[in-house]
Design a protein that fits this description.
The protein contains twelve helices and twelve strands. The strands form three sheets. Strands 1, 3, 4, 5, 6, 7, 10 and 11 form an eight-stranded mixed β-sheet that branches.
Length: 426
């Protein structure tokens, strides 16, 4: 989906041991694939001192656990469901995974991009369907592609302020069944008919009907303020940073290949099976499809034709799925016997020019959230960026490693870190 708010950076401190093969690694994911690539720094052999990110007089906030349904290509096994069906499954899976008592949860928040009109507050409907008390508040947020991030950071705010101790945050999307409206003229006529009190009034309104009233209105796939699709913007961004079609295809192939490897090795442990009514149980993502560079090269440009470089193969697919995460105040989690998986330390939202910088959010947000936390790039072991196009990720890498871009576009003296990025390490 298109957005002005392209990026939120959420800084976490994980408790798991990280590989010692590099000073730090950057993990970049195509949004639905949960796959990564490591980018090694020149200072790989240096010893790094650990820093505490705990803030005085502010509660520590932790991730206890998270789950998701399998993510599927839209128009496949989930196509006859409604969004709250998937969100309910994510909530039920989280309850099963964590054994958290329902009455302990103070609040539930879900993010979604395109709202189903029958369940506009999908968080509330999913919570009731999953068996939560009708006394448990729930609300839904939307902020384009980062709606579920907004749900998480809203949860952080509720806990940090002392309003809540335990919050479930999540996200859901069902691109298989997006709302399609009647045309504005048809809607107006139907509303006028509903208000008409006499037969004569009804006949007068009906007489104004024309066949073109039946033309439906589809949800916009372009940015409202610019009338440009995100794919078109990604193509222009790749061209501006000289990212070739070959580079994008190589990165996408690597992403799919790593995702497939992780899937085959059972590493996608957050996935919970989902029984589709009247169908088989879905147990894994169906959009992970490693191909070959030769096959990918045969695809035509998807947005800027005939010379564009963004194709269906190096872009993410439209996805159906849902996820949920259990977030707690640290003292509450420890008192209940949970071992936190991560500490949520800080976050940053940025908003850029929707025409030329729509997809450069990571470049702007990353240094800001690090500076806010008193850190540098060299203090971080793992970065994970979720974006829709491989060209976009590669362009952001170039921008983040450019003194010229920092000085001319970000108002910074330099890029703020010294690193040499190897995009495709052996």
């Amino acid at each position: 989906m298109n957005q002005n708010f392209r990026m939120t950076s959420l800084l976490t401190y994980t408790l798991k041991n990280l590989p010692n093969t590099s000073k730090w690694a950057l993990r970049f994911c195509m949004r639905p694939l949960s796959s990564s690539s490591q980018l090694q720094a020149a200072a790989a052999s240096q010893t790094k001192s650990k820093k505490t990110l705990a803030k005085p007089n502010i509660r520590n906030i932790v991730v206890v656990d998270g789950v998701r349904t399998p993510f599927l290509l839209s128009g496949t096994s989930y196509k006859d469901l409604m969004p709250h069906d998937l969100a309910r499954a994510a909530l039920s899976g989280l309850l099963h995974q964590t054994s958290v008592p329902k009455d302990v949860v103070d609040y539930i928040i879900f993010g979604t991009v395109i709202q189903e009109v029958k369940t506009s507050n999908v968080a509330r409907e999913a919570a009731l369907g999953a068996g939560f008390s009708d006394k448990t508040p729930a609300h839904t947020v939307t902020m384009a592609c980062i709606s579920s991030n907004q749900a998480m950071t809203t949860a952080v705010g509720l806990i940090a302020s002392g309003q809540c101790d335990v919050v479930v945050a999540g996200g859901v999307e069902l691109m298989s069944d997006i709302p399609i409206r009647h045309s504005r003229k048809m809607r107006k006529m139907m509303l006028d008919l509903n208000k008409a009190k006499t037969l004569a009034q009804r006949l007068s309104i009906i007489s104004k009907f024309r066949l073109n009233f039946l033309s439906p209105e589809l949800p916009a796939v372009s940015e409202f303020s610019t009338s440009e699709t995100m794919g078109h913007s990604a193509d222009r961004l790749a061209a501006a940073f000289a990212i070739s079609r070959e580079e994008q295809d190589e990165y996408a192939l690597r992403s799919h290949s790593l995702a497939k490897k992780a899937q085959d090795e059972g590493l996608l442990s957050d996935v919970v099976p989902f029984k589709v009514p009247g169908r088989d149980t879905v147990t894994q993502d169906n959009g992970i499809r490693p191909s070959s560079l030769d096959q990918m090269a045969k695809l035509k440009p998807a947005f800027i034709k005939p010379y564009g470089t963004v194709t269906a193969a190096n872009s993410s697919f439209l996805t159906d799925g849902a996820s949920a995460v259990l977030i707690m105040a640290e003292e509450k989690a420890l008192a209940m016997g949970y071992k936190p998986k991560a500490y949520l330390r800080d976050f940053m939202y940025v908003s850029q020019d929707p025409k030329d910088q729509l997809l450069l959010g990571p470049t702007y947000a990353t240094p800001k959230v690090l500076e806010k936390a008193g850190l540098t790039m060299n203090d971080i072991d793992v970065f994970e960026f979720h974006e829709a196009f491989s060209g976009q990720i590669l362009a952001n890498l170039k921008a983040m490693d450019s003194d010229w871009f920092a000085q001319n576009y970000m108002g910074r003296k330099a890029k703020g870190h010294a690193m040499i990025v190897e995009a495709y390490p052996k």
